[in-house]
Write a structure and sequence with these properties.
The protein has 531 residues and is mostly helical. A two-stranded antiparallel ribbon has the order 1-5. It has a two-stranded antiparallel ribbon with strand order 2-3. Strands 4-6 form a two-stranded antiparallel ribbon. It has helices at residues 2-20, 22-25, 34-39, 42-45, 47-55, 66-76, 79-82, 92-95, 110-132, 135-156, 176-197, 216-233, 239-251, 280-287, 295-303, 309-312, 336-339, 358-370, 379-394, 441-456, 460-470, 498-503, 505-515; strands spanning 86-88, 159-160, 173-174, 264-266, 291-293, 353-356. α19 (379-394) runs parallel beside α20. Helices cover 48% and strands 3% of the residues. It is built from 23 helices and 6 strands.
Length: 531
């Protein structure tokens, strides 16, 4: 009995010792613990590049083309081309594809896929922030979330937004108005938090932030600038709300993007650690030999004798035209061999991709003054500052007399490809550069938006939204129409993808009801209300 009692005592001691060392015995020595991950913000930090690359796919760890293909079908064969920035030397589907309005319903699923990735990473940050109490990291995540979801709703209209993070296989569709109003609320709250507490918080996201390397005050300025962008976007459908949101942002002490140092540019930053970045446009133009300068871009840049053309594009390799910049008109009958010699984009793997820049803020302010909002300054002042800033952002000296030029105007377009003469087109606009306070309202707006369109390059999604909202600049229409869209009004949205009909049928029916029109590329979005 005594031996049994001694044995039991030793078992208790051993059991206690094992319990005290349970974590040590059951921890993989080759993996970091959650506590170790939280020490360098890895647990939440790793989700930020995932969110950023769901807004614009531009990561590439080992020369793979996953990100390139995602960007191509999500944006390059949509906003980049619909905006007039780019034409394509590709003949996908025998020239029956998005560009000729015969939409590939698999391609148009990509932004849904990206939105899912965006919200999955956002949910991780939200949950970890709730545990840690880190409201600043969550505020940055909120701003990135809004940036991505606005791209999606501006492509389709009603989308599943807030319910995407619920894990439901049938997320609920929301009206575009609801998505926008939620975005304003999220941006204001995030901006206020970052401005209030960001100055003394250091840069814990430096290793993971491909936009601002963890600078919280710059994120606050971006959020404030984004509020102004979205306010201008809804000016035709909700003018009172637009004015209220814009003026609140313009007077907010967080400030806005006003210098190059504040520009929101996606790309590798000092201190980004082992993150990867590769601009997909380089692969699309050089390796795939598809993305090329657009005909509308050629018309406007050459018409204005604008030296930015040589920074953004390369001269053609077409016989007898090797000293010229040649663009491709979108939505034509393409023969690859005929159009591949047209002007490539002048871009490298490391060229950053803009989310928002100071020049855009200037043009937003110019339009705000034009609308009678309390902005300060004059339309002419902000218009000319926007142009000057845009040249600086492009790294190009603005030609003497550019702002005073009242004769240069967009040029006629000639298609020099073999058999391409039917694509040639007279210029659609005679808008000049010099500001004219005596011009009628719509001429003033065309002048602002044409220069803003140039400043936004290569942000095709944003440029396409501005074209739909205002009708400017005047972009060459497609010539090969294989859809049911008015070629004069041009494409207004992406149709919903086949996958949504197959997987979320009941909700997509609600989405179409909220859209208020047929599920095709000709139906206008909620904010697309200019007569």
């Amino acid at each position: 009995m005594k031996r049994i009692q001694i044995l039991l005592l030793w078992l208790v001691v051993l059991s206690s010792a094992c319990t005290k060392k349970y974590e040590e015995f059951n921890t993989n020595p080759y993996l970091s613990t959650l506590a170790q991950q939280e020490a360098d913000n890895y647990a939440s930090g790793k989700n930020f590049p995932a969110m950023i690359n769901a807004v614009l796919p531009a990561g590439d760890a080992a020369g793979r083309t996953d990100f390139v293909n995602s960007y191509q079908v999500g944006y390059n064969l949509a906003g980049d081309s619909f905006s007039g920035y780019m034409g394509q030397a590709g003949d996908w589907g025998g020239n029956s594809n998005n560009l000729t309005y015969a939409f590939n319903l698999s391609w148009v699923n990509e932004q849904f896929t990206l939105s899912g990735k965006l919200m999955a990473a956002w949910k991780n940050i939200k949950d970890l922030s709730a545990l840690s109490g880190d409201s600043l990291q969550f505020s940055v995540a909120q701003i990135i979330k809004v940036t991505g979801l606005i791209k999606a709703t501006d492509s389709y209209g009603p989308i599943p937004a807030s319910s995407l993070a619920s894990g439901s296989f049938t997320p609920a569709y929301e009206s575009q108005e609801s998505v926008y109003l939620s975005a304003f609320g999220d941006l204001i709250k995030a901006r206020n938090m970052l401005f209030k507490l960001g100055a003394g918080a250091g840069t814990p996201l430096k290793s993971y932030d491909l936009i601002y390397a963890g600078d919280y005050l710059k994120w606050a300025r971006f959020a404030n600038s984004l509020i102004l962008r979205l306010a201008i976007r809804i000016a035709y459908v909700a003018p009172d709300k637009a004015k209220s949101y814009a003026e609140e942002a313009l007077t907010n002490p967080a400030g806005m993007i006003t210098t190059a140092a504040d520009n929101a540019l996606q790309g590798l930053k000092p201190g980004n650690g082992a993150l990867n970045y590769s601009n997909p446009l380089r692969t699309l133009t050089q390796d795939y030999k598809e993305a090329r300068m657009g005909a509308s871009m050629q018309s406007i840049l050459t018409g204005y004798n604008d030296p930015r053309i040589a920074v953004w594009f390369k001269t053609a390799t077409l016989t007898a035209h090797t000293s010229e910049f040649l663009g491709i008109r979108s939505g034509i009958n393409v023969t690859r061999a005929s159009y591949q010699p047209f002007s490539e984009l002048n871009v490298t793997d490391q060229t950053p991709m803009p989310w928002m820049q100071a020049s855009e803020v200037c043009f937003l302010k110019a339009e705000g003054v034009l609308r009678g909002w309390n902005v300060g300054g004059t339309v002419k002042q902000w218009y000319e500052t926007g142009i000057t800033t845009a040249f600086s952002e492009a790294g190009v000296a603005m030609p003497a007399g550019y702002l005073a030029d009242n004769t240069a105007k967009p040029k006629d377009y000639t298609d020099f490809a073999s058999g391409g003469s039917s694509n040639s087109r007279a210029a659609l606009s005679s808008i000049t550069i010099k500001w004219d306070d005596a011009a009628v309202l719509d001429v003033k707006l065309e002048r602002i938006i044409t220069q803003k369109w140039l400043a936004l390059y290569p942000n095709g999604q944003e440029a396409w939204s501005e074209f739909r909202r205002t009708g400017f600049p005047k972009i060459f229409p497609i010539s090969l129409n294989r859809g049911n869209i008015d070629v004069v009004k041009q494409v207004r949205r992406l149709p919903y993808p086949l996958a949504q009909y197959q997987q979320n049928g009941a909700e997509i029916s609600k989405g179409i009801t909220l859209l208020g029109g047929a599920d095709n590329g000709g139906t206008r979005l909620w904010w697309d209300k200019k007569p």
